[in-house]
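Archive transcription. Copying these from loose printouts into the bound notebook so they stop getting lost. Printout 1 of 2:
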Amino acid sequence: MILGYPKEKPLYVSYDCQLKDSSTRAEGLQHNCDTLAGNSGSPIFNRSTQSVIGIHNGGDDWENYGTETLDRDFFTVAENVMAQRLWQTSDQTSSFGPFGDNQDILLRHFYFNNSKPDITIRIEMDIEDGYDFIMIRDGSRGIRRITGKIFETLSLTTPATISFSSDYAGSSKRVTIERID
């Protein structure tokens, strides 16, 4: 998994990727994560252990590559910060909004939990119907796109992300996500 801010965009997460055989590459890691210009320097995470395993260096038309992290002490601080901001779900309820135009925001990420992979959330939202969207992606590779004014209970498989995307005009008021399991 790679996290970054490519091309001055909001936080972008590429998490459906794998390492490749890197025996022929001097940089040490080859991967097939989706990346864009500006992802260089982004941390490469092992999704199941939630630890930094490398730094993305670049790519070409055929492959992406990075440098393996050998000095774990340097990355301990970065891992702790990311764990607190992205993977931890200590607050059961999170509210977001109002939203502006042309926003793409990662609202919540529920970390992978091998002992209890399924979670239940309640989502309440009042966003511009048909123009602004909530994208929900869960560990079973299911993607769901919802819009409008709703109050719904959903079952998800971890890891799961919930993100918001708005168009160039109009306004969306609020999204509230409550973990209820």
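Printout 2 of 2:
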Amino acid sequence: MPSNDSGVSDTRCAEAPESIGSAQAIELHAFMGLAELFRARGWTNPVSYPIQEAMAGGALLDRLDIPRNDVEVMFINRKAVAADCAEVHPGDRVALVPPGVPGPHRFLLGFKNR
């Protein structure tokens, strides 16, 4: 069972991802203006999005038709990664964060230097 940084088991991460045909879904969250984009497209937030194999963060954004410069950081299973360095696997929990997050929040979210 996955654990968070404090070593406490987190049952939310232990749930099996939704299967869609031969693909598994990622749980995709969007914040700030990207949440507005999800609403405009009629997507739920979070949305279950099928992928068949590991893919680069940029490739995921291309598939989602989200411009790469609209996403500063991707959180993958609670770890902040620059969008152009991210790798997403089936079953991952992914959050998209746009540029413009205020300084104190950047520090608290763990990407102050990204």
